[in-house]
Q: What sequence folds into this?
């Protein structure tokens, strides 16, 4: 199944300041998150952001500030965002069936949220270059487990091209000018 911008919501899970220093390849992960978030904004794909106990872990990383301002932030304490009533209420307002999930840590909050959402009937897509964990083996095992649970494993470029659908449009020309970020 291919993504559709009209049917999609971009979910950023717990990309928080105090987690970031320990994340393997954090600069690559945050760069790809920012890039896909900027494309989502240009294509009017709604953005929902979770923060796990921000008093302890800090707020969403400042490099995503523009995306934070365009999105909606929901605090949580459960590892799976879907276990939070506030999150479920906000999510239902969007009425989207394709959920593109990115964030930290892949093997904890990202995985538990993605699997719960898949089991709840959402079609979940995980751009593997937009998620991070402290240890590469945790990330790899979590991606495999999500794949086995029906989550579609993709890349940020796959998501962008599927959302765009075709070249030759003003939106495509605007986005493609900065394609190789």
A:
């Amino acid at each position: 199944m291919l993504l559709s911008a009209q049917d999609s919501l971009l979910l950023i899970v717990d990309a928080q300041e105090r987690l970031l220093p320990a994340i393997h390849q954090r600069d690559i992960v945050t760069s790809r998150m920012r890039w896909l978030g900027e494309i989502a904004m240009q294509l009017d794909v709604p953005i929902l952001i979770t923060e796990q106990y921000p008093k302890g872990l800090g707020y969403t990383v400042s490099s995503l500030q523009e995306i934070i301002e365009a999105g909606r932030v929901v605090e949580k304490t459960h590892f799976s965002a879907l276990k939070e009533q506030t999150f479920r209420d906000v999510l239902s307002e969007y009425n989207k069936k394709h959920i593109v999930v990115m964030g930290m840590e892949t093997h904890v909050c990202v995985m538990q949220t993605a699997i719960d959402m898949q089991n709840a009937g959402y079609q979940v897509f995980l751009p593997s270059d937009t998620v991070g964990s402290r240890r590469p083996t945790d990330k790899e095992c979590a991606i495999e487990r999500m794949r086995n649970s029906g989550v579609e494993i993709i890349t940020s470029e796959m998501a962008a091209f599927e959302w765009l659908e075709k070249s030759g449009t003003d939106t495509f020309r605007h986005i493609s000018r900065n394609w190789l970020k």
Q: What stands out?
A: The mean pLDDT is 95. The CA atoms of residues 84 and 180 lie 37 Å apart.
